[in-house]
Model the fold of this input.
Amino acid sequence: MKTLFLSLSIVLSSSLFAQQPVSSHVPWTKEDSAAINALVLYPDSIRLEIFQACEYPAIIVNVASLQKNTSAAFADAINGYPRTEQEDIWNLSRYPGLIDKLANSASDNELNTILADYPTDIHDSAMNYAKNHQDDLKKVDAIQTSANSQFDQLISSYPADVQRTFRDLLQYPEIMSLLNDHLSLTVRVGDHYKRDPERVIRKADSNNLVQVRQNAQEVQQWKQTIQNDTAAQNELKSAANEYADSNGYNANDVSQPTDSNAVENYSTYPYSYWFGYPTWYPYAYWYPRPYWYDWGFYYGPHGHMVVFGTPSFYFTNWYFYYPHHWDRYPHLGSVYINHYYGTHRPYNENSLIVRQWVANNREYLPRDFTTSRTSRVETIKEVGQLHEAVQRQGEPASAVERNEYLQKNSSRFPTLNNRPEQATIPEEREVPNAIQHPERQPAVVPRQQSNVSNPNSRTRPAPNYNTVNRAQTYHQNVWQNTQPRYSAPARSYSAPARSYSAPAPSRGGGGGGGRR
Done:
């Protein structure tokens, strides 16, 4: 009912706007500019389709409502499987047309012909479900067919170019999700594009160049710092191995050399927009990430460290969440501080995490902590030891308990007790509650045959992961920081309610919380 009311309100608003003469001289607010700028990292062809889609918020709302129902039906259809098998089915759903073909195949020859168009690393799984669980695949296929039919009906009364736009954007589920989750900004972008499309396009094009240049500068700065700091470089490698191990990778996977061309052109299909991403993830996770993405580096053919970017938000959050990381990898922490308080001072999700850590621990930090490296490594190490000493069963202790322990055990923390004047650092905006605690990431091992689409394949080519992910991260980052708190949706309509518990066991399987 709430979604229907919102949809009707938007339709009525659109009708009222249509009755008024459209003026191209409406001033842009700071929020308007930020909303448009958030889209600049998408390729120009996709940007144009996003701008056009923003003119039709009613379609976005109605499609999101359909997605909510469809993803819930899909999750319910596979709920009887153990989690590891649910992951298999979700994974198969990422490949365009595959479920439909598997559900209607009859022989091994047919299956082999079908699978020739898909990466070899899913062949065994596809064969298993096509032979042993075809009835369940048919149920999933029926949900997909129904969603496609209802979607066709939803957009049937709109011009052909609008229909084509929304069909294209369904292939980028993170875009549809973001447009719906930040509807007020979507409406603003669409209104400006309707009034003066050329101005919006010019602004997006010019800011694309600026943002690409800034991103390149940030990466180069991080790369030089890591390469010139042997201690930080070694700690990043060790932390990366620990991160990989905690996320289900084995040592053989992560130590394998990776070809630079495979990294630059890594392509992957997202989860289906209609089915959503696995329900046990409490945040948007449309594209499975290769392990090297979160690190910001990979191992070259001769085992050399090749830095290609800054570590991801997930890796950064993981590092700063656990105190033993500060104790174990303090040089890495110092590099983070230097980078996000340095000359360029990039502002993104990583910056938010780093600055919040500094604000939360400001009473233990010297006045020049963010500007001088003097005793910074020792300070980070002792702050980690202090937190570890008083936490109970992994849960953080109160500031009062930490301070009491510090006073009673001053000899253990010489740097903290002998620091110059205490730092005066303001409070920082909190990291969103839904992602404060690091979530385990799916173990996705990139295989050579999955990196580049089969040139003879009849399926739609997979998008370049690096391009899409940079655009998605930047888009989400800017819109979350721009959106007024009171207008942010209480619950995303783009995925079913998240559950942390394993599904009810059946079909001979257990609860299956782990990964194979």
Summary: Residues 256 and 282 are 31 Å apart (CA to CA). Residues 224-435 form one domain.
